[in-house]
Amino acid sequence: MALAALAPAITGNAPASEAAEYRAEQFLVVDCLLPGQVRTLGTRTTYLSARRPARLPARDCEIRGGEYVAYDRADWRSALAAWLPAAERGDVEAQLIVGEIHERGLGVPPDYATAARWYRAAAAAGSRRAQVNLGFLLERGLGTPADPAAAVEWYRRAGGSTLDLDDEVPPPVDAELSALRQRSSELESTLTRLEAELAAARRALEAAAVATTVARDDAEAARAEAAISRQAAAELAARPVSPDRSAEVLQLQREVERRSQEVAAMSAALGEARAANDDRLRMLEAAAQDAAAARRSLAAERARLTQVSATLAARDAELAARQAEADGLARELALLQSQLDARSGATRDIVKVGGDGGSGVAVLRGAPAGVDFGTYHALIIGNNDYRQLPDLASPINDATELARVLEQRYGFRTTVLLDADRYQILSALNRMRETLTSKDNLLVYFAGHGELDEVNQRGHWLPVDAELDSTANWIPNTAVTDILNIMQARQVMLVVDSCYAGTLTRSSMPRLRTGMTPEERLHWLRTMTERRARTVLTSGGIAPVMDAGGGRHSVFAKALIEVLRANDEVMDGARLHRDVAARVAYAAAGLQFDQVPEYAPIRFAGHEAGEFLLVPRS
């Protein structure tokens, strides 16, 4: 196996001066306005046609004399200005791109309703990518009312076959369960709010009680002083008043009158405090009654939720029994078919039944007759030795061993980058874009540091020249997505073992139908090889992942290598994810770490309801 250490292996061993001439930014995809064509009409008229929008790497746009926004590529309005005129003229590709522009970021939040309108126009004209995007919005209820049945139908159209999706939309019991969960969540929120109001009312009542007590004490003290003053005044009045003491008596009488007025004011205030206290008591009783009602309602909803969950469990058990019965029938069918083949001398590629995750599907070894899987390539990146960030222990081991398995077991043509910087990674991706055709498939593996931009929740690959306090050399997931979008390769799968890799998996995946006959499975494989696929398998979600835990490898890489090495059947990406995720979750739990791999189509990368297929050598 030939392993290339760095980018010169894929850039034709270009001299350093030539490599330096092209900045890494020139490999990034831009919305380019190409010059119009010089056209001749008849024998006397020559004119220049309108400029044509295209998505190209910046370098290609410059070479072809195009125009793009060089220093404000994050401004989606410049992209919209390039594509909207063509979309309004009915260009299907432009309609799709305008929809994606509105969904990706013209507004905050994105304008899903406008995106759905453009997707519908392009989907009706036959754009599979628009059909997948429209199905996604319908499935999630973004910009349009949620409609799972319509989403499934658009996924079917994109797939070009009814065999690649479940025939049924989620049954009513699932909808009821979802509604009950939503209702329970609402009741939980209501109960929390009412309990908070009840606690606030209790605190207010306690404060009012304290204020009432203070007012009562003040009033009692004032009454006592007034009584003493009145008694003193009465005693003075009973005595003979000398002329020189009359002024003192008059002053004392005024003091008694003032104190009496204060007592009257305090009594009035005490009355008001008691009235306010009574109002708060009534409010407290009402809040307590509302909270009790909410608790009763929540208990009833939880009982219904438990009942529906039990119904679902019974239905799952029934489906499992039926599946087991179907597996047995499929095995009998395969045995009979093998006997017929033996009698007739015919040979077939079907060698095992029930190997597809226990689904009872006949699984094909090697490349089945009549299915053109194309040529497989892999770009494998492993970064250990960072210049300004902490070094990692396993990525180089992971990349080297994965390349060996893919080349020896699956016949991949591998290119390996070890400790690659930003220029080398982007130039490698660009070389794949330039050389691969619609007959090729590409697996891109990245193991290294990853980082999340907290502002826009965008994940990044960190090459070895990345700096923690500067994003200049970071590679955003969106840049990788844009390159994959314009790549001609038929099927592309990213496998990313880094922190925050889950930001790539923001989409939905149509489900493979269970219980297929061998003929249906073969038809499904043929259909999938004709559809563009852009999928990603990540080591975890939007969280850190482990760099160790698998001996010489990371937990994720060890599981991936083991699954690929043990497999001897045509394996789709969804099954690869299931087998790897089970191993990773189990191993991570043993290390008291929460890590669950994810798998999904990559949004805005040109996915057309295809699936990445791995075909081991016979």
Q: In brief, what are we looking at here?
A:
This protein has helices at 16-21, 58-63, 76-88, 92-104, 112-124, 128-140, 148-159, 172-238, 246-344, 395-410, 422-435, 477-486, 518-529, 555-566, 573-590, and strands spanning 29-34, 38-41, 45-48, 52-57, 350-353, 362-364, 375-382, 413-418, 440-447, 450-453, 458-461, 475-476, 491-497, 533-538, 549-550, 553-554, 571-572, 598-601, 613-614. It is α/β, with parallel strands linked by helices and 618 residues long.
Helix count, DSSP H or I runs of 4 or more residues: 15
| CA-based gyration radius | 37 Å
Task: Give the % helix.
Answer: 40-55%
Summing up helix and strand content along with how strands pair, one would put the structural category as alpha/beta
Provide the low-confidence segments as ranges.
1-21, 162-173, 344-366, 502-508
Please supply descriptive tags for the structure shown above:
618 residues; disordered N terminus; three-stranded antiparallel sheet; six-stranded mixed sheet; 14% strand; 15 helices; alpha/beta
Notes on the protein architecture:
With 618 residues, the chain is an alpha/beta fold. The chain has helices at residues 16-21, 58-63, 76-88, 92-104, 112-124, 128-140, 148-159, 172-238, 246-344, 395-410, 422-435, 477-486, 518-529, 555-566, 573-590; strands at residues 29-34, 38-41, 45-48, 52-57, 350-353, 362-364, 375-382, 413-418, 440-447, 450-453, 458-461, 475-476, 491-497, 533-538, 549-550, 553-554, 571-572, 598-601, 613-614. A six-stranded mixed beta sheet has the order 8-7-9-13-14-18, sandwiched between helices. Strands 10-11-12 form a three-stranded antiparallel beta sheet. The chain has a two-stranded antiparallel sheet with strand order 1-4. Helix 13 links the parallel strand 13 and strand 14. Helix 4 runs antiparallel to helix 5 (112-124) and helix 10 (395-410) runs parallel beside helix 14 (555-566).
